[in-house]
Amino acid sequence: MSAASGISASEDLLREFSNALTDPSVRFLKIAIQNEALVPQGSWPGSANDLSRDLAQLDEILLPDVPAYILARLDTGSDWLFISYVPDTAKVRDKMLYASSRAALTKALGGQAVKDSLFATSKACHRP
Questions:
Q1: Integer Rg of the chain from CA
Q2: Which ranges of the chain have pLDDT less than 70?
Q3: Are 51 and 78 in contact (CB under 8 A)?
Q4: What is the pLDDT of residues 61-97, one digit of tens each?
C-alpha cells in the first residue's frame, strides 16, 4: 500500500507486526521511514500489565528530533494504539513524510487491529 508520499510498508515490517500479533510479550513496535519505505526499528516488551506505566519506556525509545510511529499493545492484549510521534523540532520534510504516510501504514497493517490513535509532538505528550 502506498500513500500520496509513495511510501509503503516493507515486507520486514509486515512480518515483524505479524510476529508481534502472536507474541503477547511485545508491548511496543517502533516504525520509521527509511529509503522510502516503512521499516521496523525494534520491539520492546512491557514491564507491567498496565500500558500507562509502560509508556515511560518511550522516553528511551523515542529520539528528541526524529519522528517515528509506535504501535503500543493495549491492555486487552489484542488491540493496538497507534502513536504518531512527530516532534516540532523535526525537519519539515520528515514532518510531511510522516503526515502523508500515516494512513497507508494503518491500512497495510490491517485497520481492525489499531483501535485508537495518539498524535505527539514531544516526548512529554505520552506521559500519563
A1: 14
A2: 1-5, 125-128
A3: no
A4: 999 999 999 999 999 888 999 999 999 999 999 999 9
Is-contact 41 22, C-beta < 8 A? Answer: no
For 105, residues 6+ apart whose C-beta sits below 8 A from its C-beta are: 9, 31, 38, 69, 82
| Reported pTM | 0.90
- Please list, in sequence order, all residues whose beta carbon lies within 8 angstroms of the beta carbon of residue 98, skipping any fewer than 6 positions away: 33, 67, 69, 84, 86, 90
Q: Is 8 exposed, middle or buried (0-12, 13-18, 19+ CB in 10 A)?
A: middle
Chain-centre distance for alpha carbon 48: 19
